[in-house]
Amino acid sequence: MRKDPPRAAVIGAGPSGFYTAEQLLGSGFEVDLIDALPTPYGLVRAGVAPDHQKIKGVTRVYARIAGRPGFRFFGGVELGRHLTRDELLERFHAVVYAVGAADDNRLGVPGEDRPGSHPATEFVAWYNGHPDFADRGFGLSAKRAVVIGNGNVALDAARMLVADPAELARTDIADHALRALERAAVREVVVLGRRGPAQASFTDPELRELGELPRADVVVDPAAVQLDPHSAAWLESGAADAGTRRNMEILREYAWRPLAGKTHRVVLTFSCSPVEILGGQDGSVSGVRVVRNRIELGADGRLYAVPTGQEEVIECGLVLRSIGYRGRPLPGVPFDERRGVIRNAGGRVLGDDGAPLPGEYAAGWIKRGPSGVIGTNKKDAADTVARIAEDAEAGALNEPARPDAGEIAAWLAGRVPDLVRWGGWEAIDRHEVGRGEPLGRPRVKIVRRPEMVGVALGTSSQTRARDANCDVTRQ
Ligand code: NAP
Fold first, then answer.
1. What single string gives the DSSP state of each residue in 409-469?
2. CA of 436 to the centre of ligand 1 (A)
């Protein structure tokens, strides 16, 4: 008698979800990739900045994975809302959580939640047309904005605030964001790093790009690139990585570069922590009270920012807090609150007793935290799938009662009337690309769920037949 291949559910159709699906297909699994949105690609669609279209080209790789036999996509299905963890375990030999990190870290300073102070992650989701953020408003009538944090998301946010709308109009930026940025009064963006330039976590290509913006000068105080003794010793010791060395070269060049008198400016400020987000009479953001820091060597060998007590106020009307993403717990799935990730060892989800839970795994940011570039997730997914293959070999996977492909498709369709299958996504994709073509844009995004679903479910009989055929052949 033919033994059916084992069946895996991968929750989250971002880069980690696709790389996990690819590895699982290669290990003999059939894979159902499930996403809360009707559209796939996670942060490649809703996180990578619109002026980084080359990076977004990685979706071609994911589309090829989706075309492989044994792969199915179910969009618009939310774990915890439409289905439970137990229901997944009734149906799949392995469930891999690859949901990324949906929340943002908190600064923990007074005034953090004032009107006009937002997590940068929301600004990013808004300009990228994520449907849950399409109606957000940001205080773009402010002349000065402060971006708190020194990572690549902070640089993305700063760049978008001063980018030339004519250039953005050639990208897939959400139309609502393009219109708002065209009208924006922001002329200066101050990027605040709590530690020194040698501790910044942004990468050198992104830093260099900042200096090539047509509308904005980059301002770096020459005093800021005179390193403190600890950082200087570290940089000279040879222990510093090549990226940090390149960052320092670029920052020194910015510090001495004459201003070109452009209309906009990005001011990179270091060794400065926010102490309070200040409000005006109406309560909305009027400034940030900051304290100057010095860099000190901790007992663990790490360099820390220590407040000097010297304070100042940076007046501004918009604050974007870009201090890192944080994983959001999934109902019923063990969570490490301290690290903001699913409790796991090498991708195996761990129960309260510290032992692996059969058939449950994690991959990507929800496994290791929000670090690395898109490609980092490929190796990460391979590591998790290697654990799954070991467990399969040892007979230690989950034993589902109802692993039937046809029944699973019917169950999901029963739970989510607006279920979007891969053919439906292809219809959305064609529609968006078609709208972009006459405008010379890669696509014009649909930003409302009902419209996405309408386009997806109005798919041609050919794409519907393809999806139906997928289910029949796997029953
Ligand atoms: P990140 O690289 O971890 O940067 C977070 C920044 O927030 C750090 O500078 C950190 O400073 C600072 N920070 C944390 N807590 C703070 C506090 N209480 N007060 C002030 N500053 C604080 O995170 P990210 O920028 O969100 O990026 C996430 C990941 O996505 C990264 O791996 C990034 O490279 C990647 N990404 C890549 C691209 C690209 O390749 N173009 C674009 C976007 C994102 P400390 O170092 O002092 O903790």
1. HHHHHHH-TT-B-HHHHHHHHHHHHHHHGGGT-S------HHHHHHHHHT--HHHHHHHHH
2. 32
Find, among 353, 381, 352, 387, the residue nearest to 368 by Cα: 381
| Among 384, 51, 11, residue whose Cα is nearest residue 206 | 51
d(CA 191, CA 268) in angstroms, rounded, equals: 5
Q: pLDDT tens digits for 90-142? A: 999 999 999 999 999 999 999 999 999 999 999 999 999 999 999 999 999 99
Q: How many CB atoms lie within 10 A of CB 331?
A: 9
Q: Which structural domains are found in the chain, ordered by start? A: 7-102+327-419 (3.40.50.720), 105-325 (3.50.50.60)
Best residue among 127, 155, 201, 368 to mutate for probing ligand 1, ranked by most atoms within 8 Å of CB: 201
Q: Tokens at residue 229, please?
A: 């003794």
For 332, the 3-state DSSP assignment is: coil
Residue 201 identity: S
Q: What is the whole-number distance in angstroms between the Cα of residue 291 and the centre of ligand 1?
A: 20
| Side-chain half-sphere exposure of 198, counting CA atoms within 13 A | 23
Q: How many CB atoms lie within 10 A of CB 409?
A: 22
Q: Which two tokens stand for residue 376?
A: 């980092």
Ligand 1 atom nearest 150 alpha carbon: 9
- 460 Cα–ligand 1 center, Å: 43
Q: Where are the alpha helices (DSSP H) in 336-404?
A: 365-368, 376-393
CA gap 172, 153 in Å, rounded: 18
Ligand 1: list residues with CB < 6 Å. 105, 107, 148-154, 156, 193-195, 199, 201, 206, 273, 322-325, 370-373
Write down the pTM of the prediction.
0.95
Residue pLDDT, tens place only, 219-269? 999 999 999 999 999 998 888 899 999 999 999 999 999 999 999 999 999
User: Minimal CA–CA distance to 77: which of 42, 40, 110, 36?
Assistant: 36
Ligand 1 pocket test target in 51, 52, 121, 153 with most atoms within 8 Å of CB:
153
SS3 sequence, 169-225? Answer: CCCCCCHHHHHHHHHCCCCEEEEECCCCHHHCCCCHHHHHHHCCCCCEEEEECHHHH
Residue nearest to atom 3 of ligand 1 (CA): 324
124 in Cβ contact with 51 (< 8 Å) = no
Atom of ligand 1 nearest to the CA of 206: 41
Contact (Cβ atoms closer than 8 angstroms) between residue 203 and residue 307: no
